[in-house]
Amino acid sequence: MVLNIFLRTLLIYLSVLLVMRLMGKREVGQLSTFDLVVAIMIAEVAVIPVEDLSIPVYIGLIPMFTLVGAEIFFSFLCLHSRKLRGLIEGHPSIIIANGRIIEREMRRLRYNINDLLGQLREKNIFNLSDVEYAILETSGELSVILKSSKRPLTLEDISIFPGKEELSVPLIVDGEVLDKNLQFTGYSRDWLQQKLHSCSLQPEDILFASLESGGKLYISEKEYALQRKI
C-alpha cells in the first residue's frame, strides 16, 4: 500500500513537471487566463489517482496530457491568428493616458482605484501625478510610463555613451570546463589553461569562472584552493 502510494505520487509528480515544461517557461504572473485555467485543471486532475488508489494512474495522466495538448494547439493557432489571440488572451488596456485616469475603461475591467494605487506602489510610484501612461497587461501586470520630468536620468540624457555591454558567459562550473560556452566566446582551452596557469590554478580548483564584459575573466576558487595559497 505505502509503496503503491509512493510510486503513484512520484509518477504523477514527474508527469506534472513534464507537462509544465511543455507549456513553456512563463512565470505565474505572466500566464494568460487560458494558461491559468489549464494549470489549475492539471493540478486538480493530478491528485485524483493519488487520493483514490482504486483509480488507475492513466486515468489521471490522459486528461493531463489532453489539456496540455489543447494548450499547445491553441497557442500555435494564436501565433498565426491575431483575432483568435485577442479572443483567448485579451488585449492590453490603457487606464491612464496623458496623466488622466480613464474611468470608463477601469469600470469596464472592474478595476478600481485601490487596485491601481496598489500596483503603482509595487513599482515604487507613490504619486499618480508622476504617471503619463499606465497599461494593464493581459496577465494583470501594470506597465507604467512616467512623465519625462519624473523619469530616472540616463547616460544618454547627459550625452555619455559607454561601450556595448557584453553577455557574461560561464566557462567553469564546479571544476568542469563548459566547452560549448568556451567555443561561443571564440577562445580555446589552451587560452583558458594559460590564464589559469598564470594564477597557479587548474580547472578542478575553480568553483566558478566566467568571461565578463570587456574580456575580463572572473574566477572564484574552491575553498581548498584558497587554503593552499595561505
How many structural domains can be distinguished in the coordinates? 3
Q: What percentage of amino acids are in beta strands? A: 15-25%
Distance between the termini: 57 Å
Cross-sheet strand order for the largest sheet: 2-1-3-4
What is the number of E strands?
8
Average pLDDT number: 85
Helices, by number, come to: 10
How does the helix and strand content classify structurally? alpha+beta
Shape by Cα distribution: flat
Could you tell me the radius of gyration in angstroms?
26 Å
- Unreliably modeled segments: none
> Could you state the oligomeric state of the chains shown?
single chain
Level of helix content?
Answer: 40-55%
Q: Characterize the main sheet.
A: 4 strands, antiparallel
H and E string? HHHHHEEHHEEEEHHEEH
SSE diagram, text form:
Layout: H1 2-23, H2 33-46, H3 48-51, H4 57-80, H5 82-89, E1 93-97, E2 100-101, H6 103-109, H7 113-122, E3 131-136, E4 142-146, E5 169-173, E6 176-177, H8 179-185, H9 189-198, E7 206-211, E8 217-221, H10 223-229
Antiparallel strand pairs: 1-2, 1-3, 3-4, 5-6, 5-7, 7-8
Keywords:
49% helix, four-stranded antiparallel sheet, 3 domains, 230 residues, CRO Repressor, alpha+beta
Structural overview:
By secondary structure, this protein is of the alpha+beta class. It has three domains: 2-87, no CATH class; 93-150, CRO Repressor, CATH 3.30.240; 169-229, bsu07140 like domains (CRO Repressor). It is built from ten helices and eight strands. The protein has helices at 2-23, 33-46, 48-51, 57-80, 82-89, 103-109, 113-122, 179-185, 189-198, 223-229; strands spanning 93-97, 100-101, 131-136, 142-146, 169-173, 176-177, 206-211, 217-221. Strands 2-1-3-4 form a four-stranded antiparallel beta sheet. A four-stranded antiparallel beta sheet has the order 6-5-7-8. Strand 7 and strand 8 (217-221) form a beta hairpin. Helix 1 (2-23) packs antiparallel against helix 2, helix 1 (2-23) runs parallel beside helix 4 (57-80) and helix 2 (33-46) packs antiparallel against helix 4.
